[in-house]
Design a protein that fits this description.
Structural class: alpha/beta
Low-confidence stretches: 1-32
Oligomer: single chain
Order of helices and strands: HHEHEHEHEEHEHEHEEHEHHE
Largest sheet: 11 strands, mixed
Strand content: 15-25%
Number of strands: 11
Shape: elongated
């Protein structure tokens, strides 16, 4: 399933990104912006490192523009775009049918894997996808049932409205069935809670695992959550990172089109890779 999805994103997307780049090319180079000098983004905290890096580089290239970013969660970012209080939303999950019905359009700008982390004292190094589903639905409650110590499993998750939570539960087929001990509002809070709580398990964007040695990352069905395994479709928890607009790209302001052109440029996609995600050769409208 993941392999098929990865191929779809990689192959079916080429035409759209080509159209985007061609359509936006008139804004490239050192083009000046005569009116729009402020760009407002809001959304996914999982995309914070990437969005901040893109914003900084964009403002260096276009010093007359100010890019402001708020990390309010995927659902809140999409809602802000739908209501017109943000120019672009960032979302770490697929758009829902109800969001699409409101005229919201999403563009895949990167791929991410969701890593499963446990507290560093836990000897368990891998679980199967079925075991993980049983953990989060309360069927497995003690680590001894998985070859670990005799200690209760403590379920850590994100808050309702989080793109990471929605992507995790949807990919696992357990939406609305999880029995969380803690629901936290940021990736950093999840990592900190796992690190400090014996028996804890949680899910985070895998890019943060490289900078947090105070948690242990476990394999899923024997597959490690790496960029290579997301790109080749082997890792089972893979999701898109979207940038979202109200309406089609052609309906957006010159500045919004310029931003998307920059994100899909070689420079922008190299920043995706540098941030620890899988870059997109083409973009797929969602």
């Amino acid at each position: 399933m993941a392999e098929k999805l990865s191929r779809v994103w990689g192959l079916a997307a080429g035409a759209l990104v080509l159209g985007c780049i061609v359509g936006c090319s008139r804004f490239g180079g050192n083009a000046s912006l005569t009116k729009e000098t402020s760009l407002q983004l809001a959304g996914s905290s999982s995309m914070e490192k990437l969005t901040d890096a893109l914003a900084e580089a964009f403002m260096e290239q276009y010093p007359e523009v100010t890019v402001t970013v708020q990390f309010t969660g995927s659902s809140a970012g999409i809602e802000a775009v739908a209501q017109g209080s943000a120019d672009i939303g960032t979302a770490s999950r697929e758009l829902s049918e109800s969001e699409k019905a409101r005229g919201v359009t999403g563009y895949v700008v990167a791929l991410d894997g969701i890593a499963i982390c446990v507290d560093p004292r836990n000897p368990v190094t891998e679980v199967t996808k079925q075991q993980l589903a049983d953990i989060y639905t309360g069927k497995l409650r003690n680590w001894s049932e998985l070859g670990g110590d005799d200690i209760p499993i403590v379920l850590i998750g994100r808050e309702a409205g989080s793109g990471t939570r929605e992507a995790f539960e949807n990919l696992m087929g357990i939406r609305g069935q999880c029995t969380y001990a803690n629901e936290l509002d940021s990736t950093g809070a999840v990592v900190a809670r796992i690190a400090s709580t014996p028996g804890a398990i949680g899910y985070v964007s895998f890019d943060v695992t490289g900078v947090h040695s105070n948690v242990s990352v476990i394999a899923l069905d024997g597959i490690e959550p790496t960029a290579a395994n997301v790109e080749n479709g082997e890792y089972p928890l893979c999701r898109p990172f979207l940038m979202v607009t109200q309406g089609q790209l052609s309906e957006q302001s010159n500045l919004v089109q310029l931003w998307l052109h920059f994100v899909y440029s070689e420079e922008g996609q190299n920043m995706v890779e540098k941030a620890g995600f899988v870059k997109i050769v083409g973009a797929k409208q969602k």
